[in-house]
Amino acid sequence: MRIAPASALPIRLATSLLLLALGSCIDSYTPDVISAPTSYLVVDGFINGNGATRIKLSRTQNIATTAAPTPEAKATVYIQSAAGARYTMRERSPGFYQSDSLTLSPGQYQVRISTAGTSPATYESALVPLKVTPPIDNLGWRRTDNEVRVLLNTHDATQQTRYYRWKFAETWEFNAAYKSSLEYYPDIDEIGGRTTPIYTCWRTEQPTTIKQATSLQLSQDALVDHILLSFSDRAERIRIRYSVLVMQYAQTADEFAYYEQLRKNTEAIGTVNDPLPVQLTGNVHRTGTATTEPVLGYVGAHTVQQQRLFINRAELSLPSDWAFDSPYASCKLEPEVLSQYRPPLSYPHTFTFADSNYVPVYPYVNPETGALDGYYGSTRECADCRARGSITKPSFW
Amino acid sequence: MTRLYFGILLAGLLASSYPTLAQQGSPSISGDFRNLRFEQFAQRVEAQTPYRFYFNPAALDSVTVQVQANELPLVAVLRQIFEHSSLRFAIDEATNRVFITPEYPLQTRLPDEFFQAAPVSGSPPPAIAGGGQAPARTGRPAEMGTSEFRIYEIGPRQAAPPGNRATITGVVRTSKEPVPGVAVFIDSPNIGTATDKEGAYSLTLPVGRYNLNIRGLGIRPTRRQIWVHASGRLDLEVLSDVTSLREVVVQGQKEGNVRGMQMGVQKLDIKVIKQVPTVFGEADILRVVTALPGVKTIGEGSTGFSVRGGGTDQNLVLFNGATIYNPAHLFGFFSAFNPDAVQSAELYKSAIPVRYGGRLASVLEIEGREGNRKKFGGSGGIGLLTSRLELEGPLGPRTQEDAPAKGSFLVSGRTSYSDWLLHQVPSPTLKNSAASFYDLSAYLTYDLDDKNSLSATGYFSHDRFRLASDTIYEYRNTAAALKWKHTFSPQLAGTLTGTYSRYGFNLKTTRNEYAASTFDYSINQAAVQADASYLWHAKHTLDFGASTLLYNTAPGNQQPLGSSSLLLPTIIQHERALESAVYAADRFDISPRFAVVLGLRYSFFQALGPRQVRDYIAGLSRSESTVTGTTDYSGGQVLANYGGPEWRFSAKYELTATSSVKVSYNRTRQYVHQLTNTTVVSPTDSWKLSDKYIRPQVGDQVALGYYHNFKRNTVEFSVEGYYKRIQDFLDYKGGAVLLLNPHLETDVLNANGRAYGVEVLLRKNVGKINGWLSYTYARSLVQVNTATDQVNGGNWYPSNYDKPHDVTLVGNYRFSRRFNTSLNFNYSTGRPITLPLAKYYIDDAYRVYYSDRNAYRVPDYYRVDFAVNFESNHRIKKLAHSSWTVSIYNLTGRRNPYSVYFQSTGGQIKGYKLSIFGQPIPTLTYNFRF
């Protein structure tokens, strides 16, 4: 059993803040010695005890590479139980393998992989017990200390779970800076009334941080008002409506330790008193030959519990003039006055808004002549919410 | 001050214008000396008697002797001769010298009554001839052993025939305090010694007359005329070097580098420490210690240091004999010692004296400064982040108004006000933060009589910070020491020391009321040590003693805070253990050039119950899954026993008067271990006692050195090479949990280390330019290769302190007595780090695959600091002496990487380097003394 001291992070954070105050500086740095000799197999996914299991196979990359990870295609992947049952997984897209929707019985499971290509090899993850995740009792929120905190309650009366990990998908509704009533139609090269709505969008984010907790130090296997997420109460995400889907996984102590180490290696470093990074691999290893070839990834086995939370603006009881953080601080509306062009155009055409980076918002009426003489418009980032989200309303909204 | 002494001498001469009768028993004169010129008379008397005449022939060529003598003393004869002339005579019976002078007789010595204290014990009043027994009339009484112009006789005259040897002992002191490290020596034969920490010296000489030279740090060079008849005591009061305000940095005996037995020792006087530029303008002992060859740190902002490849927990830091566990304030930006309360710091890197034990790599002994025994005074300083104040004065009765008191006190305190700095930062997190510290120390000394003296030290430091606004961290050092020094005989002196030390920290977390908690950790130790030094033979000095130390630790106590906290209280079992040692060392001077010290320290350690100890399957890596059961030990029951000899051997051979070769071998054992899995020392690092599974660390070191002094001992040069082996120090499994872990043995590994290197040092202690230049080549390697656990495949890998090349210059140039500048230069190889080799995508983000541990290095380190010190005028009479220090740390603004790290942000991996002081940092400090 290994648990990270809860106190370790704040002190590191604190030290780095202090250092900033004292004139320290952080520069970006890329040592030239880093060039990985070979690329190792990466196994990403878990055995889902109640649903389809999805495993992604890829290869490690050089640090400086900007390309997407190379998928490990055409491999044979299947789930194997300690009792001998085998569940095949099919490659849906290169490197992405999926099983049928399964309901696994309690027991121990592992994933076995045979890679194709010039140097085929076989790999397997360690046999792990299938953990049954207790349901989320309640997902709530509270506004304190200028923060909105998402709070979770869960418990396991059998005291079996103890180690929890969560993943989230946050979705919120937002508006563009300006509501455009005009639209440019490229096929006729004309501006007319808007038919495609671009004012209201929904944005979904999946935080990449590893969030986990243990109830081991508590008298019951229960987490009460555990803070899952927190963000400023001026965040744009609560301006209209906010939602978060929380997926809960029960883990073994070993898996918890792996993720804790993975978190330390990638997230909790960069301060004065960092722990030493660890050469972390996981629970997958190559079989057949006696080799030290590292394989990266931890394949756990658990069921999944999920719950969705909504926060409406009205529930927050914020004043109507509440100033939210806005990504539109630098946005401005500017007119394109067509009559200024020489020779004067007979037809109110457009130059600016033919460019897809600019969006017309409303007509410009010449104050002297009273004629439609051009358009007010702004950049796509300001007037088109699709720059940061999707206009498709999510099914759960 | 010199002028004052001339004044006394002149007054004495005036006061004694008439010669008096010589003492009975002196040679008498017979013969007819009529019609002789004085020169002829003198020749005839010199032929008859041991008397020798000194006069100016030109002044006496008009004198014709008209005397007949029959068994007359010389005094009577001379009185007849000069009865009607203006010439005067003086006879120094001690040396049988006769001086003839015009108008006034020469004073061969000052009369005894001239001084109020009899400095010489066990001797009759020495002879005074020629001069009158003039009473003291100058009004200013002088002190013991004060005068260069009189002869101090030791032992009853004619107590011993010529050729016998006698031992004189005493204390060298200024009006304020004893002076350690002062050379006391005679020229012919060349015999000398240096005073110890209490200022005591002991010198064995053939009986006879000598000029005793006294030279040392912060005192005016002087000499005393002594006439040794038998063993006795002579205390020497010397003048502190007022005019230079102790700026002359003389490191003990000038020849100590070559002639002393010590090797791998560096002594720093507070004056040196004070002139080195530091980041916040405050003199910092530990910062200067880390500029010495063989001492490495991870970087700025950490006072944890490694000596010759050892761990940060392998240094014994003593303040007046009491252990200080965490000698740092505010994440290591300040050392925990107030510079005003410190006299000196001494670092032993090899050839650790036998009286020290319990840590592998080094001993850093910090000596508190003794208070002024004559008058009340104080000093202080005001800086940007801290201020300090120190008060001192005499304690106890005095024999006379101006005489030094029997005791002294010195209290000092220091406090920070760093909060304002945090509040300047435009960050809400920092605005809600607080960081503060203070420390207090007191040092009392009292001489019961000339054979017994007592001293008491108290020390307390406290740090408190709340930076993430929900957790409050606090830590405290407490230390106390009581020392009784007793002189049994001139040959045998002993010290009995009792010490108590405690270190503790606690955390309070309140962010989530259901998980609010407090956490406490503490370690305390109580120790008694008896030391003795016995000069049992002219060629043998024996040091011996015994010590015992009781540890008590409370390794962790987590309690819920508030009624709604669901937290389960957790208390980790307390640990108790006894560490004891007996030791003896003999210094044997085989010949004047060749000396050896042979020492043995035998230490033993007993881990004591009550405790519950888990049992594990033998031969497997200890973990939760290999537990077989537990064993209960009752209170006082020994659950683990360790011990063994620690050899301490050193030898010195002087090649010439200015060069020598020394060699040493050392074994050390350490029974406490610091638990830290960060590269630097953090306040939550705790200490663990050896137990059934955690074995003591054992270190062996051999060292060989060559020492050479140039330019009349003002420039010291040394080359030292060493090889070191460390067994069983602690390393950690990946993701080890160090706090609140009831079974630490499952998370730690036994590592072995080896270190070797060469240190070259050129040091100049006096003159306008002083300081040192050093080059070090040092390697420090670690191996974890047990049957059950390996790191880096069981191969040797560089430790965190492996910085092979290091060049350090610490220099000071004095333009005038009031203005000097200091320059630091430091270059070293970058420290080892673990670098990412590849990236991979897992769990919706890029992750990093790291290299073997410490396989790469950060870029090289390079830094220059500069400081200017201004002193106000040097008039002795004024309210306060003050000085200003302007310093610039990291003058070139080089961004030395403190750490290099890779972070996954927004799905991308970026490399960063963190520089702690990435720009020049100017500071201004005002210091005062009254």
UniProtKB/TrEMBL annotation, chain A:
InterPro entries named in the record: DUF4249
PROSITE patterns: PROKAR_LIPOPROTEIN
Signal peptide: 1-21
Record keywords: Signal
Keyword Signal: yes
Pfam families with a match to the protein in the record: DUF4249
Name used for this protein in its record: DUF4249 domain-containing protein
Organism: Hymenobacter setariae
TrEMBL record, chain B:
Membrane topology term: Multi-pass membrane protein
Cleaved signal peptide residues: 1-22
Domain TonB-dependent receptor plug: residue ranges: 282-359
Protein localization: Cell outer membrane
SUPFAM superfamilies given in the database record: Carboxypeptidase regulatory domain-like (SSF49464), Porins (SSF56935)
Domain TonB-dependent receptor-like beta-barrel: residue ranges: 439-891
Record keyword Ubl conjugation present: no
UniProtKB keywords: Cell outer membrane, Membrane, Receptor, Signal, TonB box, Transmembrane, Transmembrane beta strand, Transport
Primary location class: membrane
Any single Gene Ontology cellular-component annotation: cell outer membrane
Entry keyword annotation includes DNA damage: no
Family (UniProt): Belongs to the TonB-dependent receptor family.
Protein name: TonB-dependent receptor
Organism in which the protein naturally occurs: Hymenobacter setariae
